[in-house]
Every structure is written in structure tokens, then in C-alpha cells.
Amino acid sequence: MTIRDILTVDADMAALKQKSTPVAAVDDALRALMDDMLETMYDAPGIGLAAIQVGVPVRVIVMDIAKGNETPAEPRYFVNPEILSASDEMFVYEEGCLSVPEIFDEVERPARVRLRYLDYHGKKREEDAEGLFAVCIQHEIDHLNGVLFIDHLSRLKRNRAVAKVKKAAKAEMDA
Asked: Does position 170 have pLDDT exceeding 90, yes or no?
């Protein structure tokens, strides 16, 4: 497995805004990509990662929302995920993103969703998501559609977030 570079808004906004294409089949090459993505996500550290965030514009997500070291890892893989339905009830959660480092803000999303996807072995699955799982899967599916969590914020907050990430990246390069 390989840790890949994660694209960030300061240098890679155009790439992150691409719409990802569906995957034709789950094969060994795709599983290798998912394994790399999972290792990259854990290393970052994060709880979800879309393939576009490592520069591969395909509809693939990895996720592990297990919290802390006292909970064993629970890696999940989602190929061609789609939301079938969403609740009318909304849920507000403070989100962050590996592609928008050190920026956090509240985003309102449906509290529950029903989704369909292919798993790590290519088996078709459907399940309901709520709580952090619902937030994370919606956040990552947004990535597949070229949408960042900061796109859910006001223009002022979005511009401030991007400027802050650019400033931090420049300071890191100058150091």
C-alpha cells in the first residue's frame, strides 16, 4: 500500500471540482486504489476520503468513522455510491476536510439517507445512514460531484477559508 498526496484547495481547486466518473468494475486495480486511499486517510488522519482527493476522478470513497484507539478500525468502501432518498429532517454538524486543512464549520445536511453502492468485492449493497455516517457519506459523495464542504458556506466564509489555506501553505513553503 502507498500513501498518496491529498489535493488541497490552495493548489488543486480545479482538480477537486471535477465530477468523478462511474467505475465499470471492481477489480484488483481498483481494490489497490482503495487500499492506498485507506492508508492515506488514516495517515492524514481523517475519517473519509474520495478518490478525487488523491487525483483519481472515479466514484470511489473509503471511510472509517470509528473514534479513538479504543475502538477497532472499521474500514468501509463505497464504489459508485448514490443516495436513493434523504430525510426531510436536517442535522447540523461541524465538518472539516482533508482538502481544506485546518478549516471547520457547521454544515446542514439531511439527518438520514438511504444509499446504494458496490462494496470492496463488487457486491451491490443498500443501507440506511444516520448521524456521523450520514454526514460523512454525504460529504464524500459531494466530492464525487465536484462539491466541497465549503461550498455549503456563505461566499464570505468560503473565500476566507480558501485564503487561510493558501496563507498556511505559503507559510509552510517559506519555512
From this structure: no
* CATH code for position 46: 3.90.45.10
- Give the count of domains, the chain: 1
Residues 151, 96: Cα–Cα separation, whole Å: 12
- Residues 51, 60: contact at Cβ < 8 Å? yes
Strands of the chain (E only): list them: 48-50, 60-63, 76-86, 90-97, 100-110, 112-118, 124-130
- Residue 4: inside a domain: no
Name the pTM for this structure: 0.94
Average pLDDT over residues 79-89: 98
Active site residue 95: no
**What gap in Å lies between CA 133 and CA 128, rounded to an integer?**
9
The enclosing H or E element of 39 equals: helix 28-43
Is residue 6 classed as helix, strand or coil in its secondary structure? coil
Q: Provide the pLDDT for residue 69.
A: 57
Range of the domain at 162: 9-174
Active site residue: 108, 126, 140, 172, which one?
A: 140
DSSP 110-143: ESEEEEEEE-TTS-EEEEEEEHHHHHHHHHHHHH
Encode pLDDT of 1-57 as tens digits.
799 999 999 888 999 999 999 999 999 999 999 999 999 999 999 999 999 999 999
